[in-house]
Amino acid sequence: MTPHNSTTQHGGAVVAAVGVFDGVHRGHRHLFEAVRARADRAGEGNRTLAVTFDRHPLHTIAPDRCPRMLTLPERRLELLGDLPQVDDVVVLHFDDDLRRLTAAQFLERLHRLYGVTDLVMGYDHSFGSDFRDPSPDHYALAGEKSGVGVSRDTPFILGGEPVSSSRIRVALAEGDAEEAEAMLGRPHRLEGTVVKGRQLGRTIGFPTANLAVPAELMLPRRGVYAGRCLDRPCLINIGTAPTVTDSAKIAVEVHIPGFSGDLYGQSLSVDLTRHIRDERKFDSLDALTAQLNNDLYSLTSL
């Protein structure tokens, strides 16, 4: 993701939202609908702006507390740019200089560099080195100092609770790919490069592409999942393959029925749609093969 240092200046209003926007989920889209509505109410020709960061702020502030991400940076930028409510996207480099800005200083920078006149905040969003200020009007006052009107949006509710990136991570940690998809508005995607693995799968009739997933990307709970890859249904095993190895290393193995091409060294995207079963150790390769055939039947019967 390449940071943008400026955006087109014009005489109208620029209504922005600021955040990591990890996953660009339905809650984020709800927020940008509010941004678009505010811009439209201000008159024709007004612009909307998504202001995001090249990394999660906790990566700089407290690396040990930084969560695994739902989307890699380039994917996140692509998803933001595809939103019909968003006219421009600005990516800021989150470093110590940025983290030291107060809310008023940050808003003043948005106003000066990008022409931001209004900011719509997410229901639980906070920013600025002074964000712990107890005043309920903290951001409104910061906006007055910087010439930016500030308002806060309502949450997007699903299943009785607000949709958030944290809630999606919990669903994935529990292996609930369907619940994660409901909140994301699309399946959770794993991305990486195909690397050589143990090459055991082909000997039992289940060749796999072994996906080297970047460490910052969120992996769901260990197990076997149904999904899609290369526009085909596929099986995804996430785990240590305890039947064939004692290694504790987590691997992502993708079996694409009917596919026989060479994928080594290529980038691959896999969408997870449903958890089929947990990973377990089998007594023999024959027992593992029988279970994989059952998994495959479950996949084809979807």
How would you characterize the overall build of this protein?
The structure is a single chain. The protein is built from nine helices and 13 strands. The protein has helices spanning 26-41, 57-61, 73-82, 96-99, 103-114, 138-146, 165-173, 177-184, 285-300, and strands at residues 14-18, 47-53, 88-92, 118-121, 149-152, 157-158, 161-162, 188-195, 209-212, 223-229, 232-239, 251-255, 267-277. The relative contact order is 0.13. It is elongated, with a radius of gyration of 22 Å. The protein is α/β, with parallel strands linked by helices and 302 residues long. The strands form three sheets. A six-stranded antiparallel beta barrel has the order 8-9-12-11-10-13. 29% of the residues lie in helices and 24% in strands.
Percentage of residues in helical conformation: 25-40%
Shape field: elongated
Mean pLDDT: 91
- Spatial order of strands in the largest sheet: 8-9-12-11-10-13
Q: How much strand?
A: 15-25%
End-to-end span in angstroms? Answer: 36 Å
Radius of gyration: 22 Å
SS summary, helix count: 9
Count every beta strand, where a strand is a DSSP E run of 2 or more residues. 13
User: SSE order, as H and E?
Assistant: EHEHHEHHEHEEEHHEEEEEEH
Largest sheet: 6 strands, antiparallel, barrel
Low-confidence regions = 1-8
- Given helix and strand content, the structural type is alpha/beta
